[in-house]
# Entry
Amino acid sequence: MSHIAFDYYRGLYKEYRDILSGSEHSWLQEIRDEGLNTFLTLGFPGRKVEDWKYTPMTHLDSVEFTVPLKKPVSKAELPHQTTHAHFLVFVDGYFQASLSKIGDLPKGVVLTSLADAITSHPDEVKANLNKTVDFEKQPFASLNNAFMSDGLFLKVPKGVEISDPIELLFLEDAEKSQDMIHYRHLILADANSNATIVEHYVGTDAQSHFTNVVSEFVLMEGAMLSHYKIQSENSHGVHVGGQHVSQDRNSNIKFFTFTLGSKLSRNDIHIGLTEEGAECELNGFYMVDKDQHTDTHARVDHFKPHGQSTILFKGIAGDKAKGVYNGKVIVHEDAQKCLSSQSNKNLLLSNLAEINTKPELEIYADDVKCAHGATVGEMDKDSLFYLRSRGIPEEDARELLVKAFVEEVLDKVELIHLRNHLSAMMVAKLNSAGGSSVI
Amino acid sequence: MLKINNLHAKVEGEKDILKGIGLTVNPGEVHAIMGPNGSGKSTLANVLSGREGYCVTNGQVDFEGDDLLALSPEERAAKGVFLAFQYPVEIPGVNNSYFLRTALNSIRKQRGEEELDAFDFLAMVKEKLKHVDMDEAFLSRFVNVGFSGGEKKRNEILQMLVLEPKLAILDETDSGLDIDALQVVASGVNALRAEDKSIVVITHYQRLLDYIVPDFVHVLSNGKIVKSGDKNLALELEEKGYGWITGESS
# Structure
């Protein structure tokens, strides 16, 4: 990282360190200090770092991002409403209680903002924060450690099921550019609990932001969690998300990411199946056009026997957009009898669009069933003609085929309203290009 | 209804395959176009349906007063032209019923007619399914995915019956069918026959014409219609082969 950037972040940190939430806790300040130091050592990653080869971030060096402070928000109309009982709204980095609603919850459930949890449940935050992430190598997670101030805190106690999905809205509504927003989410799912979380990242302004999210999920024995992340921020900013999951025996996570927004976005999903019989399912799609660039990195570590992982990502790129996918499944020596499949399929809608995909598999055990594969293709001309010959206009036929392409993923979305919402967002995006994104 | 005049066409970048076809199809008529492999049968079907990659170098095609060749594939469908494909494509992710309803409503919309809701559509399509001996389960499957050869062809005929075209062109619909499937397909086609509807059956073999009896039979050879007659011509071809007309041994 450049000297200028180095000095800039040091100065910025000095300015904010003692006014960020929870700054009275010395353990938190230690995490922050260490986070800043690691970040200053690593800097924004460039092409030379293998994991960032196709998505270098060194240009962020030259931007003087600022950290917004919590301000009162009086917003009558939100871009996204919910029918669910629990709806938590965050604006420009901070939880807004007045815009949120939290319905009746089973006894023992803690559903609040991280800023609040640091005060109300400091021991639990302290015991779990930073436990699932390998910070030494992660510049964005380190930066998040330094500047984190708010996010979601959810604790589901033993055996408790939260039947209604918990829906979260992270809204960008800034008046000026170059806000740097660090959300930090901590989700603790105790043994045999069950919950569903839906995260929406939405931008209603036209400013360029840098959103840097770190989510940590701890699933104890037999816990079940469905998690959906839908990112449709405006097309000017940068969105980096690091999702880190630790799974105990027989736990099960269904993890979805859907990326439509941002000029530059990166999603890292790291799942550690740390005990026997743990299962994870990772699904999602990314859909980019114009000059968007998106990168999905998924990694699953099978540490113990009888685990299962299923990965399915679909990508659609139009105009001059670029999509990057890298999925790595590692089956460690002890992880016998595990099952793993990985698939990444991509659809190019223009001659200038680009996809780089690399599904990887490393196996150190000898009795496992694993498969992985990837495809990149254009829209099938014969299918298009077939539909048109039956009277379906070209634009509708293309829309139908794009929807058909992601059907396999959408079909796995268990919340019907969300499936419809995603389908509508996709169609709107396809049509917003006004035909220029297609061949 | 359909007037083809001196039609010349080729696959882009190659030599002419159709070398001056003339054919008039009046309402209510069934025409069979027969011919050996490579005579231009499928090219004719593709040109009439508007498939990309074909290039008309001369001639006109008039469909009820419209210049058919100037229309997009979807406009041709809306005008009432239907092609039953020789090789129907599989479309994973698109439900058969949704596809059929979208197609029908697209056509109705282009014609300025009211769209059919899901309920009315289902009632109508269930009736049509009987004609092609298909189970309702076919509706909820993806278009042609995992269908046998015979099921794909029956699905083509089902689409034809739902869309009710004025002119149906069947491109080698009999290829790869066993005799039972052939009869089902033929009875589906016969269900469409009416005074105001025309059918063009393109086939290599006579046997389909036992079930779909044509008013006229034309022999296509080397890109031209070299002989026309009634249904007896097809029988003669079956007996003697194409050689005596085309001047080649077949």
User: Anything to note?
Assistant: DSSP finds eight helices and twelve strands in chain B.
